[in-house]
Amino acid sequence: MIAFQNKPVKICSFLAILIYYLPGLSLTTVEKDYSDEAYGIIANLETQTVLRPIFHYHDNIRMMPLGDSITAGEHRVEPVPGAYRLRLGNYFQSHQLIINWVGTLQNPSLTPDFDGDHEGHGGWKISQIKHMINNNLSTYQQTDIVLLMIGTNDFLGSAMAQDALNDLEALLNILKRKVPEVKIFVSDIPPINPQGSKESANSQNAQQVADFNGGLAAVVSQVASPNIIYVTVGSQLDLEDINPDGVHPTKAGYNKMANLWYETLLRPAPLKNIQNLLGSHFNDVITGNETSNLLVGQGGDDWLCGTSATLAGANEQDVLSGGAGADRFILGDTVQAYYAIRGDRDFVRILDFDAREDALRLHGVADDYRFVQQGNDVYLKLAKYPELIAVLEHTSVRDLSPLSFEFIHRSDNSKLTTNNPPNTNPAMCCRHHCNRRVAQDAWETTAVGTTGLS
Question: How far apart are CA 273 and CA 311, in angstroms?
């Protein structure tokens, strides 16, 4: 559904809307439709990438790495404190996704700016994880996502695969019963190299690991919870990815695991030559490029930006629709207003701005802008220059409220300022318009009404 004239309606033909608002485009214009996605998307036409997370993304996702020393990265031979989380965290940051690693343990040797929280207990078996969860449930109730990889120590103690699978099934049933809303990704475990220096890294235990990995999918299926999901991360490692002890991954092995977690959790894909995009029915972050784009968010609380970081709307006539939900339309960054270059030849048309819940994100301060009512539409212009920024269709100036605007700017000390807490929405400036260092700066956002904007 999208909202047209502030009313949700079903899109009968995305292409028909495209041709109506962008008549210069041909019928062969490439488009992409994500209506069938089960979760929101993060699409960037400028970088030609889309992320399709297999979880509902929101600010400050709490993600728990749960397991043994392979989760911690703390082991005697070639330790890699932080394990796969180092590179995976960098991937999240590169997309400005705010992930809060959680757990009762920390990697003390990591740099201060890395969130080292985790729940990787060296030497622990599946039964010990199960016991801990039974006795410390509150930790897991405050978690959104768990990355579970456990079982290696069971086999170093000569356990049989079926016994370990039975223990894991009992663990998953406890999680299903006690924290049903937490999304748990259950990974298989890395192989054991029988040529390793660790005495228990032998061919018999290596075979038990292989049998355990082979039976894991059936166990997860038997538990039958939509929030408990089987993934293959550990078993994708080769023996050359295991360090000389025969059990723990090398640094390259941990990096490989990070790549696999990234691909599993976010499902990145190319967006080659895409100009017009229809989002999901959930929370989307959609960024356009230097061409005139039609971007439709549909349902959810969407963040829409029609232009690229470099041209800032020059010569573009973009069309945006957020649909239902509280949407943010990004019309400027900390440096400049967008669409403020070619008069009325570049602007953005917003089809369904709902002043009751949507907001415009603008550069500068309120006095930099004025609104003009023209028929059923509101024209947003710069106050001092003949520059049209946006057209809010089927909107009245009288409907606008103090919550309809969010202004961002840099203070005299060149730091971005807003009254939102650090590490807020990843689309704060449509992701690529603000450097990551803003997370360490003091923010200040001013929400104003229409006083003086006439």
Answer: 18
Q: What one-letter code names the amino acid at 180?
A: P
Q: What is the pLDDT of residues 92-146, one digit of tens each?
A: 988 878 889 999 999 876 777 788 899 999 999 999 999 999 887 777 778 999 9
- Residues making up the chain, counted from first to last: 454
Bridging pattern class, strands 416-417 and 405-410: antiparallel
Cβ atoms of 118 and 78 within 8 Å: the answer is no
Q: Which two tokens stand for residue 425?
A: 């929405």
- The C-alpha atoms of residue 102 and residue 70 are separated, in whole angstroms, by 16
Share of the chain above pLDDT 70, in %: 83
Gap between the Cα atoms of 450 and 399, Å rounded: 10
1 neighbors 324 (Cβ within 8 angstroms): yes
What is the pLDDT, as a whole number, of residue 17?
58
Q: List, for residues 28-78, the tens digit of each pLDDT value.
A: 454 899 999 999 999 999 999 999 998 887 778 899 999 999 999 999 999
Strand order through the sheet with 269-270? 269-270, 49-51, 42-44, 285-287, 303-305, 328-330, 359-363, 405-410, 416-417
Q: What's the rounded Cα separation, in Å, for the pair 229 and 207?
A: 24
Residues 234, 235, 241, 246, Cα dihedral to 10°: 90
Contact by Cβ (8 Å): 9, 269: no
Q: What is the DSSP string of 405-419?
A: EEEEEE-TTS-EE-S
- CA distance linking residue 111 with residue 109, whole number of Å: 7
Specify the 3-state DSSP secondary structure of 435: coil
The predicted-structure confidence for 261-300, as pLDDT tens digits, reads as follows 999 999 999 998 888 999 999 999 999 998 899 999 988 9
- Give 116's contacts (C-beta < 8 A, 6+ positions apart): 81, 82, 85, 101, 106, 107, 108, 110
Long-range contacts of 420-425 (CB under 8 A, 24+ apart): 420/445, 423/59, 423/60, 423/98, 424/59, 424/98, 425/59, 425/98, 425/303, 425/328
